[in-house]
Amino acid sequence: MTVAQADLLSLPGVLNRAALPAALEAAAQATRASGHPLALLTLDIDHFRAFQDEVGPERADQVLTQLALLLDQIKPGTASLACLGSDEFLLILPDTGLAAAVALAERLRLRSAEALAQLNRQPPLTVTLGAAASPPGQDWQAQDLLALADARMSFAKKRLHPHHNMVWAGALPSDWCARLGLRAEDWPSL
User: Is the pTM for the entire model greater than 0.85?
Assistant: First the structure.
């Protein structure tokens, strides 16, 4: 781990992978108790590996830290930000439905693109986000919600044109749902 990576993980309010399961489960329990929705956004930086190879790990880690600070500034006060590792982040959004999460994701995408454009790189660094929200009135698990948000982000990067710089909260092919162990009838937003 480089110095900048350590800085990223020590930023106030940025959860690391070890702290994430407890924070995610606490948010899920609070959501179930309140009856309000819980939304998750996964975010991955497009073209980041090539950028890291080009500028080196220390400069790349500085960019990650700057992006984490931007995300922390933009996120709602009740939200939590986690670093999932490498160039992937997660936002935990209590009391947020899918439409509001997608609207926030779009703002994050645009603001991130503006900030990352200052690097004057071709292709430009952008972000792709996946969004998921807890199904109303259904039994659900926090890890399933995370898997769905992450799958949507991965699907957008791998299968949807232009393969980057987008927000996806839409349908997944049935084979993706089966691999995740998600039943479409339990997740109305599928």
Answer: yes
pLDDT digits (tens, 9 = 90+) for 149-181: 999 999 999 888 888 899 999 888 878 777 777
Distance CA 61, CA 64 (A): 5
Contact status, residue 140 vs residue 186, Cβ threshold 8 Å: yes
Angle at 24 between CA 8 and CA 157, to 5 degrees: 65
**Among residues 59, 40, 43, which one has the least CA distance to residue 127?**
43
Q: What residue ranges define each of the domains in the chain, with the CATH number in brackets?
A: 3-186 (3.30.70.270)
Q: How confident is the model at residue 10 (pLDDT cuts 50, 70, 90)?
A: low
